[in-house]
Specification:
globular; seven-stranded parallel sheet; two-stranded parallel sheet
Length: 319
């Protein structure tokens, strides 16, 4: 197959490019910078307008659009504009290229986010009965902004005129891999330093997915033509932050994890130039449609997944 990965130079894109390349597929990454990897081709684009890159779309089998400015920042006016425009402009550009292709790809997998669901503790969110966020009482403006962005992102996908291409909005949780600079690397480093304790009580749920199950879910979506629209790509077992970090500390062999109050997190977020939403929002999301379609997870439980990830994380740093 020929796989096109707009925004494929980031952590998730590298995971997918590595996966497809290893099995012999042709991988083309669309990136703002050249030379991301010697193993697959990289085409430079501006992630907003048509150009020579559109020739790669014509005749491709699958497009997986992962473009989106990182949300690991302060949500000031300038960053909000970039977060929104990077997602909307790239989705529109990809949709136009697919719509005008003589031989359009049969599948367009569009990145979305599990953050689209409401902050809740009472029940998990699946694609059918899950509650879209934004109407919760007293939620911070920054949380509502994230939900507004996610909804606008999916509306742009839905509006794209691509009658011959199946479209899937991947509402993905955090993808856990031992790669340097990824979310697991950050969490493991915190735990190793004794800082991986409860955050604001630790009741908030964490949704996650092991990298191997993530790539397997992508393969499953490619193969199962009945799946279209929103699909949650996450482990079937989200768990409270306190339990999540306890199991990570156990896998790391770390006995102590210093807790942090909500105020401490808010002050720390200012100095780290990020937002507390990334830690405080309860993301209790489950993969209803994948499970109903028969997908089986190899790493459904965090305790075992954490052990496997820690082993590879340590091996990669010993090399």
């Amino acid at each position: 197959m020929k796989i096109i990965l707009p925004g494929g130079s980031g952590q998730v894109g590298t995971i997918l490019a590595r996966h497809f390349h290893a099995r012999g597929d042709e991988v083309v990454v669309l990136s703002r910078r050249a030379g991301c990897s010697a193993k697959w081709r990289t085409i430079v684009w501006d992630a907003a307008s048509r150009g020579p890159w559109t020739r790669e779309i014509d005749g491709a089998d699958v497009v997986i659009n992962l473009v989106g400015r990182s949300v690991n920042c302060r949500y000031n006016a300038a960053n909000r504009r970039e977060i929104l425009s990077s997602r909307i402009d790239s989705t529109r550009a990809v949709g136009e290229a697919i719509g005008q292709a003589s031989h359009p790809p049969r599948l367009w997998l569009q990145s979305s986010t599990a953050t689209i669901y409401a902050h809740r503790f009472d029940a998990p969110n699946d694609e059918v009965s899950g509650i879209i966020g934004g109407a919760e009482p007293d939620i911070p403006d920054t949380w509502k902004f994230s939900i507004d962005v996610a909804q606008a992102w999916e509306r742009e996908l839905e509006a794209a005129a691509t009658p011959h291409t199946r479209k899937v909005a991947m509402r993905s949780a955090m993808v856990m891999s031992p790669d340097k600079g990824g979310i697991f690397d950050t969490l493991a480093t915190l735990a190793r330093r004794g800082l991986g304790g409860n955050a604001a009580g630790g009741r908030q749920y964490v949704s996650w997915v092991h990298e191997h199950d993530f790539t397997r879910a992508i393969d499953f979506l490619i193969a199962h033509e009945s799946l279209a629209g929103p699909v949650n790509t996450c482990s079937p077992h989200p768990l409270p932050y306190s339990t999540f970090m306890r199991e990570l500390r156990r896998a790391m062999g770390v006995r102590i994890g210093l807790p942090a109050t909500k105020l401490m997190l808010e002050v720390g977020a200012i100095f780290m130039r990020t937002e507390t939403e990334l830690v405080l929002k309860s993301r209790r999301v489950v993969p209803g449609r994948l499970l109903a379609a028969g997908f089986g997870f190899t790493q459904p439980d965090w305790a075992n997944a954490a052990k496997e990830l820690v082993t590879r994380w340590r091996q990669s740093r010993a090399q």
